[in-house]
Amino acid sequence: MLERLKTRRVERLPEAVRLEGRILFLTEDPALVRRQLAGEDLVWDPSIPLRDNISTDEITPAYICYYYDDTLGDFPYLGLKCGEEFPITRGAVRAGGFVASVSGKRRGKGSSREQSPYAEMCAGIRLVIAENIERIYRENCQNLGILTSTDLGLVARIRGGETIPLAEFTAGQGDITRGIIEYGGLFQYNVARLQGRVHVPPLATPSRPMTLAEKIIARHWVTDLATDRVGARAVRPGDEGFVRTDIRFSHEYVTPMSAIFWRDAVGPDEPVVDPSSIFFFRDHLTFLELAMTDERKAEGLLDVALELKRKQEEFAEQQGITLYGELPRLGRNMLVQGSEAICHSKMLERHALPGQIIIGSDSHTPHSGAVGCVAFGVGTTAIFNSWLTKDVRIKVPPSVLVRVSGRKPDNITAKDFMLQILRQPYVKNGQAIGKIVEYAGEAVEALSIDERATMTNMAAEVGAFTGIIAPDGVTAEYLVRERGMARAEVDTLMAGLASDPDAEYEEIIEIDAAALQPMIALPGDPGNGLFIAELGQRVAVDIAYAGSCTAGKKEDMDMYARVLREAAEAGERIPPHVRFYIQFGSQDVKRYAEAQGYVDIFQAVGAEIIEPSCGACINAGPGVSYDRETVTVSAINRNFPGRSGPGQLYLASPYTTAASALAGYITAWEPKEAPVAG
Ligand code: SF4
Questions:
Q1: Whole-angstrom distance, CA of residue 564 vs CA of residue 575
Q2: Terminus-to-terminus CA distance in the chain, angstroms?
Q3: pTM of the predicted model, to two decimals?
Q4: pLDDT in tens, 408-425
Q5: Residues contacting ligand 1 via CB (< 6 Å)
Q6: How far is the centre of ligand 1, averaged over its atoms, from the C-alpha of 515 (Å)?
Q7: Three-state SS for 364?
């Protein structure tokens, strides 16, 4: 397949571009937007207020993201709020013949969803102009071939029929970004790389002390894609290039759109490169039908969402890619049974290895960093391109060291560590965004791999590029015990995987584990952490949720069982006003919980046991709230508004979640006996 692409004609865009079509101004005034949609070309006057802070949620609300092909072109800006109104209706932008879309400050903030610029592109938009543009949204535009600019002066020139020099859109960009723009998108640029027509500038970084993550990145640095040369002596923060991946994975929210890109750009019958290192997952929307409102079902959105599952299955089968899918449905009514695993759970249980580079279509991909690999989330176009090149674009981020010292109290968990880290000013102020976070210190070394995964997983909440923990004896034992690997093989893998003593960290954060108390994060943000003792009032709970990739692992089940065992033996049950859900992260975890007798304990206290899936964590399964008054205590990783329904969601550790379910209000757990062997 690569041979065929090596002869495919790809050209740079012309040196000047002509943009033919109308210009849509996204204004504060809904009437002005409606007049443009009705055919009027707005006479531009800088005193007209443009909409600022247009989020990707407004460009394509979450339910729109169930669409994955050019149907998305019917929907851009459906969630755009102008004044108190939503003036843009289905199909209106596409019908309007617009080529450029203009708005104010911070265009494209929020979620990294690539559906947003893709919807705009499918509606005919070729140029986005805004006072300033958020980084990920801008990169997604560039990857898709949409031009971006902060120059409102372009409006008059486009209307005047002027051709615009392409250099105006590439000014100030690095070599790689400039190449991607000049070739009209990441795919065309990559084909040119495969053909040896463009070369990523060679690395000039001399040998230097490196962090663990930098060493892994250097080992995977692609020096020449055309001749398949990989490996660099050293990297440093700011180096730009591509790294060879060991594993690429995606879930049903992303795979179908990537598959459409593959079909259209590469060819429907072309095989992906090295399918054995690609994995698909059906995990996010498995239980959606149990959580979606009747109103949305009446709009046909459940059928649209189910298409995501079918398309992923078709592509997996056609390409011979392993799909960790949905369990067979039951009976004539086809009752949903859950999934094989949440993507991150399975990556860690079965696939991730020390020293690897793993990319996934999900922000919590750093989960696998628990075994000492560099794992990070990427967008749809990056996943699709990785099926072709096996590599991914990277700009080496600075590193931050989080050292957790001391011996933790028995009722403190990795989740408490993270809630404490998330309330550190450096993290709360956003200074850790985009950085590599390396966790170390004796309290981290004392954690199991499952608990370490809670920390690397929640690097996403830190806003980090990734989270990583150096592999050690605990890692080796895990790989031997859980994967059946030979110790010698593990030792070979782990050789050299440690940060140099004089490696550079932009910041070092010190946490004293011995001083910690059980924590809770108040609704709204994982950074709203408090010691439970500081809550100051009794908070009654309606729902307790114990599951997700963060809290559905084997050791999480150990912790739930440790809290609930005594109550079960005493014949106690959770109070009638509380609904307590325990959801496994994978079938492996479920089998483990059954073998340990935990399921009997859970059922004895009245917990509802749920098969694996993301479920309530993504507002798509049992355990979600349906009104603002409902209070939930949850062991998941984030509690942004609406994340798990409209209610008030408090984040807590597995111990606290189980203890609060039993008590009926938020409370810490006080251990009376030794830990359950896990
Ligand atoms: S369980 Fe939640 S955080 Fe984890 S992958 Fe699923 S939706 Fe994301």
A1: 13
A2: 47
A3: 0.91
A4: 999 999 999 999 999 999
A5: 284, 342, 344, 362, 364, 548-549, 614, 617-618, 637
A6: 30
A7: coil
